[in-house]
Amino acid sequence: MSRVPDDLRYSKEHEWVRLNGDTATIGITHFASEQLGDVVFVELPEKSASVRQFASLGVVESVKAASDIYSPISGEVVERNVKVIEKPELVNTSPYEQGWMVKVKLADKGELSKLMSAQDYRAHIGETAGAGGD
Amino acid sequence: MTTDAALRRTPLYEEHRALGARMVPFAGYEMPIQYAGIVAEHRAVREAAGLFDLSHMGEFHFDAPSALAAVDRLVSSDIAGLAVGQARYGLLCNERGTIVDDVIVYRTGADHVLMVVNAANVDKDEAHVRRHLKKDVGFVDRSADTALIAIQGPRAADILVRIAGGSVAALPPFGVKSARAAGAEATIARTGYTGEDGFEVFVDNADAVQVWQALLVAGRGDALVPVGLGARDTLRLEARFSLYGNDIDETTGPIEAGLGWTCKLDKDFIGRDAVAKQKADGPKRRIAGLVVDGGVARHGYDVTSEGKVIGQVTSGTYGPTVAQNIALAYVPTDLSKVGTTLAVRIREKDVPATVVKTPFYRRAQ
Question: pTM higher than 0.90, yes or no?
Answer without folding.
Answer: yes
